[in-house]
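Hi there. Long-time user, first ticket. I'm pasting a complex I've been working with (about 300 residues overall). I'd like to know whether the download I got is complete or cut off, because the file seemed smaller than I expected. Thanks.
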Amino acid sequence: TPLSPQTRAARVRVGRGDKMVTYEQAHAPHHIGHRKGWLSLHTGNLCGEAGAAQRALEDAFLRRFLAGTFPGLLLDEPVLKRRGNLLVLCALLARALPPHKLYFLQGYTETLLGHFYKCPVRLELQTLPARLPYKFL
Amino acid sequence: TLMGARLAGSHGDTQEPKTNPLVSISDEPETLYKRLSILVKGHDKAVLDSYEYFAVLAAKELGISVEKVDKPPKTIERFTLLKSVHIYKKHRVQYEMRTHYMCLELKYLTSSTAAVYLEYVQRNLPEGVAMEVKKTKIEKIPEHIQKPVWDTLPQVKETEVKS
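Hi, the file is complete. Here it is re-exported in full:
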């Protein structure tokens, strides 16, 4: 079924050609499952499973928290994974801070979120020199 | 001195069997499972396919016979909401959630084999996207059914056997 051209959900509109857009931002939400993956992986939204609302709330808080502890360093949306009790946060960072500061922030987020959510939290960071462009719109 | 003590050593002719603290040996008869059915649910079919390959390989390595690998059709839960906060009833948004299934059925297990296999397979469950619902069928041999009732006593004992 074709989509209306007036939908504006999670789409980056075509501009002059100088706006850099990552792979995640370039694809519209109807490409999820086909060209895109999921940013938050949990079992709450499966048929017959409960806890979708709690997971959604936790995801919102975790994204705001990560955006706040690494201000300006997050290159792309962090991927949140839940394996049983374990919460794994995978984030891509820019190389603006020296490594010992990044290690401190990693330990800080892990302990604080662990105490807050009462579950083991693992933060997996990867640094890149710059944001990876997919297209220029 | 020290060298003499080492040569004399504490190793005698009788060697004590090394007891692994993880392995427990009990004399109770093990419960037998006729069929172990594992249902895996997920949003992503590719993840479920790779997990199926992994689970079937693990079963073959442990020597468990796989009865069949069933792939029930996916269920799509759709709902239509209003697009706007206040009015505009004619403009809606539709969302859907797809759940793919994969059912793995294993034949003729003992309880310890089932425990080992399930623990291994559950520890390597991929994050979020696949969930496991396990149904086991237990084989029992109750004593009061072994002889037919009409041969022995005039008293009819009604025993309900629910499978």
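A couple of notes from our side: The two ends of chain B are 72 Å apart (CA to CA). The mean pLDDT of chain B is 79.
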